[in-house]
């Protein structure tokens, strides 16, 4: 995501990150400071700093999911039909966010444009869609 943020630094484009602990309890931080220290010094570590706006830890699925994710999931086709075994929320629903690093691309009009499986980690496909939205 940092590569995309840097590539589009001079464009009308922002990346928002929502840490979540519902997937194998991979985000145990409680405060924003703990979260940033974990990113900077542990995973990925080495002084890494995210080039995106990070929000507080957020539930993206289940009975306490944030309404923004209810909206996003209802507007885009889901990326997978299999559930992982290390999920920490209920109830499980078709269309849930599959795992950490699932991504949504939203147009300037606020309408969700596309949803990307967590395995989409190279920026090629996402860049093509971003370029299409920026030139629209």
UniProtKB/TrEMBL annotation:
The gene is GPx. PROSITE patterns: GLUTATHIONE_PEROXID_2, GLUTATHIONE_PEROXID_3. One of its GO terms (cellular component) is extracellular region. The keyword Signal applies. GO terms for biological process: response to oxidative stress. The keyword Zinc does not apply. Its main location: secreted. GO terms for molecular function: glutathione peroxidase activity. This is Glutathione peroxidase. Keywords: Oxidoreductase, Peroxidase, Secreted, Signal. It comes from Chionoecetes opilio. It catalyses: 2 glutathione + H2O2 = glutathione disulfide + 2 H2O. Coiled coil: none annotated. It is found in: Secreted. Belongs to the glutathione peroxidase family. InterPro entries: Glutathione_peroxidase (IPR000889), GPX_CS (IPR029760), Thioredoxin-like_sf (IPR036249). It comes from the Eukaryota.
